[in-house]
TrEMBL record:
It comes from Kordia aestuariivivens. This is Serine hydrolase. Keywords: Hydrolase. GO terms for molecular function: hydrolase activity. InterPro entries: Beta-lactam-related, Beta-lactam/transpept-like, Diverse_Enzym_Activities. Residues 130-391 form the Beta-lactamase-related domain. It holds the Pfam family Beta-lactamase.
Length: 414
């Protein structure tokens, strides 16, 4: 009986709480938004109760479908976190919807939804939200399975916030990415990390074997735990997915800047991009930042504002966040990391934590469940999206569609 009473009180508490973004005062208001919500109504009270009942009884969110989507949209209710405060002067995004983008026909060879218009695709396939910005203006924006003000988990897209932080310090002459990581951390000498250049870690090619996350997340000396990792192959020779790379880069940002990762991102990135809402950042049991897995939670527009920082429209200020040198280094790829992507069906490279850098200079970062950020500096184009895989573990192919959109001619600059 006590457990049932506790469960009811817990559920009532969650239902009474407001979402974190609504706590921001004086947020940017849009009198007549031109985005589409497709009559999305949110979760029912019964669905919310059912989700929290599973968590209360020891269940987890990794079940895909609506359970996972609830987690993605309500991270602050479930996981320990800190807030990254928004900008005092939010960047206004002009809305200029384009029918030719809305009616763009997806490729017929997609696993699901092929041949549909983009507008129909996002409604019928596992998409929570999609925004497309061209020349600094929103040309398409839709929210079929979330609210525009929801903070949605970014997952490993957060890793490019880590690499951007490294690049900012690199621009200031505080980090030399050609130096080995043990130059900055004595504890990594005589370990698998010894001699591994920071640049190879940025390219997700450290050669380090997988590190047990559970150990790192509770350790009060995480760099010592990382020092126990073994080298599986020479660095710079092969792309490999390893959260350990983002972990050690996060610690490097903190050591060189003297700030926590949260504070660095807030001070040097989040407030400077003109973010409209404060973001959330997952926190481990030991107080360290979860920059390598669950990561940050943001609105879709604010993620797109970050993407804009890499485009001509977002780099007009005298001191842009993303320097010419940073852009050049992203695209100056290590040719050893070349691979033929099964999704894109063309050659891609990994660089500065971006998972796909294309021969034409576009780059993309995807994440578990269907998150993505696609940037084409040459076309002044940003495509950002959120999604959740269904119970059959099927997710949208907006990554492929983003590439098709970039190459379609719809966004070629005059």
């Amino acid at each position: 009986m006590k457990n049932i009473t506790g469960l009811l009180l817990l559920t009532l508490l969650f239902l009474a709480c407001k979402n974190e973004p609504k706590k921001d005062a004086d947020t940017l208001s849009t009198p007549s938004p031109k985005y589409e919500t497709y009559n999305y109504a949110g979760f029912t009270k019964e669905e919310i109760y059912g989700f929290h009942k599973r968590i209360f009884e020891g269940g987890n969110w990794t079940e895909y479908g609506d359970h996972e989507r609830y987690y993605y949209l309500n991270f602050s209710q479930i996981q320990k976190h800190s807030r990254i405060l928004r900008s005092d002067t939010p960047k206004i995004l002009e809305e200029t919807p384009r029918d030719d983008v809305k009616n763009f026909i997806t490729s017929t060879d997609l696993k699901k939804g092929g041949g549909l218009s983009l507008n129909d695709y996002v409604q019928q396939v596992e998409v929570n939200g999609l925004i497309i910005i061209h020349k600094g203006k929103i040309v398409f924006e839709g929210y079929p399975r979330m609210f525009p003000t929801d903070l949605h988990i970014n997952m490993v897209i957060t890793q490019v916030f880590v690499s951007t932080s490294i690049a900012i310090l690199e621009d200031r002459g505080l980090i030399d990415t050609s130096k080995p990581i043990d130059y900055y951390f004595d504890a990594l000498k005589n370990s698998g990390w010894e001699g591994v250049p920071v640049l190879d870690i940025l390219a997700m090619s450290s050669g380090i074997d997988r590190v047990p996350l559970e150990t790192y997340e509770v350790s009060f000396d995480p760099i010592m735990d990382l020092a126990t990792a073994k080298s599986a192959k020479p660095s710079g020779t092969e792309f490999q997915w390893s959260n350990a790379d983002a972990m050690v880069l996060t610690l490097l940002v903190e050591k060189i800047s003297g700030l926590t990762f949260r504070d660095f991102v807030e001070q040097e990135i989040w407030r400077k991009i003109g973010s409209e809402y404060s973001a959330l950042l997952g926190i481990n049991k030991n107080g360290s930042s979860i920059s390598y897995a669950d990561g940050m939670s943001t609105t879709l527009r604010d993620l797109a504002r970050f993407g804009l920082a890499f485009t001509p429209s977002g780099r007009k200020s005298a001191n842009p966040i993303i320097s010419d040198a940073h852009l050049s280094k992203i695209r100056n790829v290590n040719k050893n990391l070349k691979e033929t992507s099964r999704n894109f069906k063309e050659t891609i490279y990994s660089s500065y934590q971006w998972g796909a850098v294309f021969d034409d200079g576009d780059f993309y970062k995807g994440a578990h469940g269907g998150q993505g950020l696609y940037i084409s500096p040459s076309k002044d184009l940003v495509i950002a999206f959120f999604g959740t895989a269904n119970v059959d573990r099927e997710r949208s192919q907006l990554s492929v569609i983003s590439r098709q959109l970039s190459k379609s001619g719809l966004f070629d600059l005059e």
